[in-house]
TrEMBL record:
UniProt record similarity statement: Belongs to the HAD-like hydrolase superfamily. CbbY/CbbZ/Gph/YieH family.
Annotated site, Important for catalytic activity and assists the phosphoryl transfer reaction to Asp8 by balancing charge and orienting the reacting groups, chain positions: S115, K146
Species classification: Bacteria, Bacillati, Bacillota, Bacilli, Bacillales
Gene name of this polypeptide: pgmB
Places the protein is found: Cytoplasm
This protein's name: Beta-phosphoglucomutase
Length: 220
């Protein structure tokens, strides 16, 4: 019996991964650093400060700022991101997600959230999805970003679920690695997620009956 399903947020439930990208791209350009969508793949699932470090490294500017200045840069990105979040409504829930949540709930299986975003609850609120989740891991209490399994393990613990009997859903390579490191079954949504146990092109393919079949046929 499946004990829990744990969702990533940005890029799985809604396309806020794109808003993160727009806000980082803007900040990077102010610093004379150019990033594209391909580079952005490396930022998915990574904490705010770790993302900033990767961008500064890309521009060879890591040594140019004090830690206080870095905090300011990260805060600037975040306020831009929060501005973009203001347009978010339940219409922005990605295709297939609401149906999937409903199907899981109908079987009484606990649903969790594993996002390292400190804005996760703001996003869930804007989408009117808070009630769907039995447990949301608190990003503020997580020491290690994905690919470390910490946030997925925390979510399983919060749901009283055994990781090996639980499913994680991710759009980022670091996230799929985190799910696997937690010993869970990894559903990957998107490209370049070869480590996933079950790989889908986009969220419209998130069909509960098919996910269950692939979980039942998993190799250990
Ligand atoms: C998620 C996103 C990342 C983002 C991180 C921190 O993992 O995939 O792109 O940088 O959360 O988000 P925050 O909202 O706290 O800056
Ligand atoms: Mg994501």
């Amino acid at each position: 019996k499946i004990e829990a399903v744990v969702f990533d947020l940005d890029g799985v439930i809604t396309d806020t991964a794109h808003y993160h990208y727009l806000a980082w791209k803007d900040l990077a350009e102010d610093l004379g650093i150019f990033i594209d969508e391909k580079f952005n793949e490396n930022l998915k699932g990574i904490s705010r400060m770790d993302s900033l470090e990767l961008i500064l490294k890309e521009g060879n500017r890591q040594e140019d700022f004090t830690s206080e200045e870095k905090e300011e840069l990260a805060a600037k990105k975040n306020s831009h991101y929060c501005e973009l979040l203001k347009q978010l409504t339940p219409k922005d829930i990605l295709p297939g997600v609401q149906e999937l949540l409903t199907a899981i709930k109908a079987e009484g299986i606990p649903i969790g959230l594993a996002s390292v975003s400190k804005n996760a609850m703001t996003v869930l609120n804007a989408l009117n999805l808070v009630e769907e989740f039995h447990y949301c891991a608190d990003a503020a209490k997580i020491a290690n970003s994905k690919p470390d399994p910490e946030i997925f393990l925390t979510a399983c613990e919060g749901l009283d679920a055994t990781p090996s009997m639980s499913i994680g859903i991710e759009d980022a390579s670091a996230g799929v690695q985190a799910i696997k490191a937690a010993g869970m079954f990894a559903v990957g949504v998107g490209e370049s997620l070869d480590e996933a146990d079950y790989l889908l092109k986009d969220t419209s393919e998130l069909v509960w009956e098919l996910i269950k079949v692939s979980f039942a046929n998993r190799k250990n």
